[in-house]
Amino acid sequence: MNQNARLRSTLLQLAGGLGAGLLAASSVAGAPEPLRAAPAPAPSASPKPPAPAPVVAGSYILGPGDSLQVELLDIPEYSGVFTIGPDGTLYLPRLRSLYVEGLTVPELSWFLTEQFRAYVRDPQVFVNPVVFRPVRVYVGGEVARPGYYYLSGEQALPEASGGFTRLPQASRSGRLTAQVAEANPLVAPQVSNRPLQLPTVFDALRAGGGVTPFSNLQEVSVTRRQPLGSGGGKVRANLDFLSLITQGDESQNIRLLDGDTVVVAKSSVVLREQILRAAETNLSPYQFEVFVSGRVKSPGAVVLPQGSSLNQALVAAGGPMLLRGRVEFVRFYRDGSTDHRQFGYSPGAPAGSPNNPVLMAGDVVRVNDSLLSAGVVVLNEVTGPFLSVYSLYSILQ
C-alpha cells in the first residue's frame, strides 16, 4: 500500500471514529442545507493520543502551491514556513517528504502530530496557511466564454504569529469581497477565525465574459470536492444568483476554492429584464458589438449597450433607407447551430418580440433590397457605362 493510500485509509478511519456523518447538499435554490460533521465524542481521561480536530465539510483543501507555517512547540529547528510541491508533497525536517494534497488544515495538523510522535515526546504541532495558491475553476453553462480560469484573491494572510515573516501578497483582479452566510453548505473556510479572502462566484462569472440573454441566474450551481477525511466525493450548492443583483443577497455569492465548477443554467426564452439588471453592475461588459449592413445609411460594426434590440441597432446605423426590403437576422451559436430568419421592419415592435429580437455579441443584421430598390441598382449598373462614354464624348467635342 503506497503512502497516499495509507493516508487516505487513516483519515477515513478518523472520520468514522468521529461519526462525521455529512448531510447531502439540498437542491432547493436559494436555501441550501448546510453540511455538518457529527459532534466528536467526549475526550477520554488519558491525554495520549491527542484527539484529532473534527472534520468539517467545506474546509479549505490543501494543494500544490500553498505555503504553510508549521510550528512544533518548543522545537524551533523543526518549525518554519514550507510550501507544498507540485507533486503534492510537503518536505519537513526529520520527516522528509509527506504526501499532504487533499488534506484540510486540521487534518494536516493531526497527521503531522502523529508523524512527529516517533521523534518527539508528546508533540504539539500547529499549522497555519500563510500563502494560498491561485484558484483554478471551471465556468460553464450559459456564459459568454466558458472555460477554465485562474482567479486570484487575497492570497497572503496577515503576518503570522511566532516571528514568521509574512510572504509577499499575490496580485488581485476583479475581487468582490462577500461574507458568506453560515447556512450555505460551501461555507467560507476559516483558519484561526480569520476568513480567507478568496474569489467568489461573481468573479468567476465575470471572468467568463458575463451572462447572455439566455442565462438563468436563478439556477447557478457550484460543485466542490470534499476533503479526504470526509470520505472524498463532491458536494453541490444551488444558488439564486439573481437575488445578489436585485436584492444584494451576498449569501448567494459564495467563495470559491481550487477545483470548483460553476455552471449557469440556460433559459428557453430571452431574459431581457435580467440582462438589463446585470448591465447595471460590472458583471458583464457594458457594451457589445454587432454588424449591420444592407439598406442602412451607415453600414458596419455597431457598438450597443447590453440589452439592446434589433431596432436600436438599425437606429445606431443611421436608420433604414426609404427603399428597403425585409430585415435579415443571423445569429451563430456555440454548438454550431444558426438562427437565420427574415421579417418585416417594424419600428414600433417591443424589444424581445419576433420582429425586434434582443441582440447578442456577434449578431448580423442586414436590411435587404426591395424590388424597386433592386431595380434601381440594376438600372444604374446597366446605364452607368453608357453615361460615362457619353460624358467623355461631350468633353471631347
From TrEMBL:
Pfam families: Poly_export, SLBB. The lineage of its organism: Bacteria, Bacillati, Cyanobacteriota, Cyanophyceae, Synechococcales. Residues 290-336 form the Soluble ligand binding domain. One of its GO terms (molecular function) is polysaccharide transmembrane transporter activity. This is Polysaccharide export periplasmic protein. Residues 57-128 form the Polysaccharide export protein N-terminal domain. Keywords: Membrane, Signal. Residues 1-31 form the signal peptide. InterPro entries: Poly_export (IPR049712), Poly_export_N (IPR003715), Soluble_ligand-bd (IPR019554), TAT_signal (IPR006311).
